[in-house]
Amino acid sequence: MRDATRRLRKKLKDNCYKSETIDKIVEFYTKGMRLRMKCPNCGFWNRIEVNKLFIEQETSERKVKAYIPIYEPLKTETCKKCKSIIAKPKELIRIIKGK
Ligand SMILES: [Zn+2]
C-alpha cells in the first residue's frame, strides 16, 4: 500500500495538483472498477477500467472536508467508436459534477 501511495502521489504531482492536496491521499480505493467516460472527440460513452481513490480537501465552509474521487486508468484506452485515445495510465481523471 505504501508503494501505491507513493506512485499515486507522483502521478498527482505530474498532473499538477497542489502539494497540500497531495499529502492527503485517502488510502483506500476501489481496484479495477468500470468508469463511464464520454469521448471528448465523438461523444460516445465508453467504459474504461480504473482504480478509484480519494483525495481529501478542506472546503471553505468551516472544517467540512470534501472527498474528491480521482480515477486512475489501468491502461491506455481508446474510444470504441472513433479510436481516439481517451485515457492514459499517466493521466489521472478527475470528474467534476455538474459539468
Ligand atoms: Zn470517440
Structural class: alpha+beta
How is the biggest beta sheet arranged? 4 strands, antiparallel
Order of helices and strands: HHEEEEEE
List all distinct small molecules, including ions and cofactors, that are bound in this structure: zinc ion
Outline, from the CA principal axes?
globular
The total tally of domains equals: 1
How much helix is in the residues? 10-25%
Quote the average pLDDT: 80
Q: Alpha-carbon distance between the termini?
A: 33 Å
Can you walk through the features of this model?
This protein is an alpha+beta fold. It has one domain. 17% of the residues lie in helices and 44% in strands. It is built from 2 helices and 6 strands, in the order ααββββββ. The strands form 2 sheets. It has a 4-stranded antiparallel sheet, covered by helices on one side. It has a two-stranded antiparallel sheet with strand order 4-5. It is globular. The relative contact order is 0.20. The protein binds zinc ion. The site of zinc ion (ZN) has 8 residues, from loops. Zinc ion binds next to loops.
Q: Nutshell version of this structure?
A:
With 99 residues, the protein is α+β, with helices and mostly antiparallel strands. It contains two helices and six strands. The chain has one domain (2-94).
SSE topology sketch:
Elements (H helix, E strand, L loop, with lengths): L1 H13 L4 H4 L2 E14 L6 E14 L6 E9 L3 E2 L6 E3 L5 E2 L5
Antiparallel strand pairs: 1-2, 2-3, 3-6, 4-5
